[in-house]
Amino acid sequence: MRAVQFTAHGGREVITYDSYPDPEPGPNEVLVELKAGALNHLDIHTRNGLPGVDLDLPHVPGSDGAGVVIGVGETVTRFEPGDRVALLAGVSCGHCEHCRHGETPLCDRYHVIGEHVQGVHAERAAIPEDNLTPVPEGVDWSTAAAAPLVFQTAWRMLMTRADIDPGDLVLVHGSTGGVGHAAVQIADHAGATVIATGGDDDRLETVIELGAAEVINYNNTSFKEAIKALTDGRGVDVVVDHIGEATWEDSLKCLVKGGTLVTCGATTGPIVTTNVNRIFWKGLSIHGSTMGTPGESEDVLDLVWSGVMQPVIRETLPMSESAEAHRIIEEREGVGKVVVIPDSQL
Fold it and tell me: What pLDDT was estimated at residue 19?
């Protein structure tokens, strides 16, 4: 078969679409013929190289994908050939104290398909059955591939970690990206009022269509000052911040007393400066969040499958053009997700 892969860390020039050994499913694995995959910033970070992550090379990226079951291991009970499935990329052990309490993203051995182990941007992939979720008939493959990672991540951030309420004011940074555009839809669906940031007026128009009540172009104005004006100095109840260094301190300044910041990443850098006085004096809460539990994932995907929410697809390309797909993500063109299709499926 053919697969997207890289044999060294580096720029987009290390990406190829070449022959790769056919996967053989283990006893608890499902063999899936991929119909579509989708990219996340995680694919860029993995290609560049992550501290502490020592990959077996060549590495196949891809933490989002969907397709049809074409074979199952001997202990698999949830799926059979012909089933439509999508990947839930977070792998947990099922036995540690966190897993036993249902908090699988906190698993002592937690890792992500496509980041720590081989991914699914290939013609076929062998995937543990616990990392697959059914896809109903009528859901197109691009939607099935593009939705899971970002929607499960945004759902856990807002609904579980921040525990938003109807009427809350929620500031969503990076609203034109994958997690950001999912967070806008989830917060709006939950009855919150969404204020969203982004760097392009045209793309922010799409964010308004997704449910944002107000948008802020951070290239034209300080989002901290804009929040102060929009809320008459009150601030917001929740900030969704996966940007990191560039936004951290001003994000904390935007919070009302008793407010919550929730983060799932740091695309501009992980090292931040924090005024601890502000945190204890205002009674602020800061929550980290990674991916989602299987239950959280399926709760939000039910809303996606039924059309209540949807991933925006900014571009669809053959897997042989994955370098271009990486470029679009890196240069932040468009809104939402980039989908890649195995060339054999075109």
Answer: 97
